[in-house]
Amino acid sequence: MNRPDWKLPAGVPRALWHYTQSDEIADSYDEFFEHTELLGFDRQVVSDVLLNELSSESIVADLGCGSGRMVTTLADRGSHVLAIDLSRAMLDTVCQKTPDISDRVIPICSNLVSLDGIATGSVDHAICMFATLGMIHGRSNRSAAVNHISRILKPSGKLILHVHNYWYSLRDRKGVRWVLGNILKGVFQKHAEIGDRVFTYRGIPNMFHHAFQWRELKGFLRRAGFKISRRICLSRSRADKLQWPWLLPSIRANGWIVVCTKQ
Q1: Is 219 part of a structural domain of the chain?
Q2: Each residue of 168-183: pLDDT tens digit?
Q3: Chain centre distance of CA 84
């Protein structure tokens, strides 16, 4: 678990490394997020978008699968699922949950920035949910992850992903002050980027997360060869879509679930 910084995987800060290597985090993951409303809504979105397109020949990559909440949804339809996560403990949980469909669930312990072991054009569809993309540190590393996803997808393959909205922070207590300070850091500090945040999470200090501006995310996706077909603006509770999504969505949306297609 303890390793020098230069041995950490690309885009993985030390706090995130500790998080992914913790058996305790994995064992309590489902209970901790049991009442998180987003986890019901995003599962419904994935079902609506993908399930009618899946067959016993389909291969779907769940990127940052965690304890496998989406894996069972996808594999129960008969498709093969690449359950990809940096946490071996999480992947053990996935395997424990899926003994009856173990022939269709392939656990892969990997960093999303380094998916070289997955063949080009070998995956029909992919999902990257629960703000996983924002857990990757560094713009170049996030870009590399999106490029890898595009590479492993077949032409016309769909990607569904969820990210947090940077400007929604303005609605937090002291949010305006934080955003102004964050912008100044992003402009004047060498290794800081606008949208980066560190905080204590589940007892682990200095956890990192990056919240996206819409044009930033759109740029990543388009440069990687994706065409965005649907943007779902999330409500404050994240239990459903934002009401009146045309009204100041850049500030009002808690985040976005984006559906896009590889060109």
Answers
A1: yes
A2: 999 999 999 999 999 9
A3: 11
Full residue range of the structural domain in which residue 133 is found = 5-167+196-262
The pLDDT tens digits for 223-242 are: 999 999 999 999 999 999 99
| pTM, full prediction | 0.96
Q: How far, in Å, CA of 236 to CA of 257, rounded?
A: 14
Exposed / middle / buried, residue 252 (Cβ in 10 Å: 0-12, 13-18, 19+): buried
Phi-psi region of 196 (alpha: psi -120 to 50; beta: other; left: phi over 0): beta
CA 248/CA 102 separation, integer angstroms: 45
Whether 184 is covered by a domain: the verdict is no
Q: Does residue 142 lie in a domain region?
A: yes
In the sheet where 226-233 sits, what is the strand order? Answer: 105-109, 80-85, 59-63, 125-128, 158-164, 255-262, 226-233
Would 53 be classed as within a structural domain? yes
Residue ranges with strand state E in 87-148: 105-109, 125-128
**Residue for token digits 């129960």?**
76
Look at the chain and report how many structural domains it folds into: 1
